[in-house]
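Researcher: Hi, I'm a grad student and pretty new to this. My advisor asked me to get structures for two proteins we've been looking at. I'm not sure of the right format, so I'll just paste the first sequence and hope you can take it from there.
Model: That works fine. Here's the first sequence with its structure tokens right after it:
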Amino acid sequence: MFAPFERQPYYFNMSTVRWFFFLTLAFSTAAGQEGGQPENDPHRPPCTSTQCRKIRSFLRTHYCGESPFGNGPHDGCDTRGAKESERNTVVTADYGCPWDESAKASKCRQEGNPTGEDRKLVLHQMRLVGLPKGAEPEVYFKVLKSASGLSVMKGSYEHLRGLELTFCEVIVVADAGGGVHVLRKVPLQKAENVDTADSTSWSPVDIADVVGDGHLEIVLEANAYEDHWLEVVSVQGGSFKTIFSGLGYYL
């Protein structure tokens, strides 16, 4: 079985779209402490309930680095780099897109491969969101598997032509009973300039009992233009509900 990745610099697991944003981050962190959280931040609603505070504490302990970070929020944190997964969750496939200085571009490579059945499930859903015919070799996969039988699988397609980026992605959940559910999806779209592509993408981080009630939740990292945060999705049979969104940072 493929072992979880050793900790790598963040650019190792970063998509083409995000690379340019993080170059800027290196120079903005110190100055960013002067920034404030935008009012009515849709990705960071007020966290006032006991359950929300408990979730936030769990996330900060397991998936956060420096805090605060970037341009805020004041209670946010650095979500880059490797995460501390639950001992009952294994990363069986992942991919990274490190920067190639000689090519002046990021180059993705797959580390570990999904099973034939997992690959089939993900590609089927990606075709439904517009994956171009013949583009299957350009799809990269991340797969998390829990001892409970729950699997969370991501498929990501990015094709860069000059500065124009064509991309789509899906996150698929397969339960122990054979049910298959689409948790997140980004339909095929184009961005004229890869540097300023404005679309949210997600990556599965962990499958864990975040709330502490004996039920599993799915932890996602969300990335948008100059904005990065964590989400927690509860799993109840074939029903999914986002019960937390917050932390992270923006530029």
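Researcher: Oh nice, that was easy. Here's the second one.
Model: And its structure:
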Amino acid sequence: MASTHSYLRPERHISSARVSCHSVPENTQTILKAKLSAILAIAAYNVAKTLPDLLEKIPYHLLDEVVVVDDGSQDGTAEAARNFPVTVIEHGSNKGVGAVIKTGLRRALDRKHDVFVIMAGNGKDNPQEIPRLLAAIDEGYDYVQGSRFVLGGKSENLPLFRRLMVPASALLYRLLTGFPGTDALNGFRAYRLHLLDDSRINLWQDWLDHYELEMYLHYKALSFGYKVKEVPVTKSYKHFDRGAAYSHIRPFVDWWSIIRPIVYLSLGLRK
């Protein structure tokens, strides 16, 4: 059972000095805010060291709610999050990133938000780039994928295994769907919640509780003719020499978790 600590954000309490958002002109930010209700979900597992710095940089004025989903952390992650104007939802145990996203999506649907943004809480993603994702949503795209490899994107200290895995997965998705994507494994994304109204997309299946969910939705969005766009983002691993967890992915077991949605869906073994 998840426990929830809610923060109802009065926008006037957000200091302009604390929010930096130089990527999108002010008038565009106003349009984004007026048109759509957006929620940011942050996947958090033992990230007490990196989470405060990330939460300091969030452009709160563009978001209607920020939710930190603590997936059974044991290092005080939830306590660190409560020092900021965010909603904290705690899982009683570690359930997996797919379960984290489902929790964030339930919150988004309950609050009738229009747009869902998801990012990692371990400091690899730059929250100041959220306006780039929202701007693409405002242009009419349904599913916006962050990419470190398109023009304007940046990759810092990418580990060797990921240098091989990321382009290989991008090539596989390109062959299966025809979409010329570059960074399918990048978890920094935004999408319109009307995708979940599509009866062909069922994120609530039990087998999608770990790394499968992100790849499942990615494949579905690319396969069903939704408007998809990649936007430039930064993915940085520079800070992991300070003791932060580089990755919770286990060799072989979780690699299969990442790959199997492509296998199952392309062969028609799962829906």
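Researcher: Is there anything I should tell my advisor about the second?
Model: You could mention this: Residues 10-25, 242-246 have pLDDT under 50 and may be disordered.
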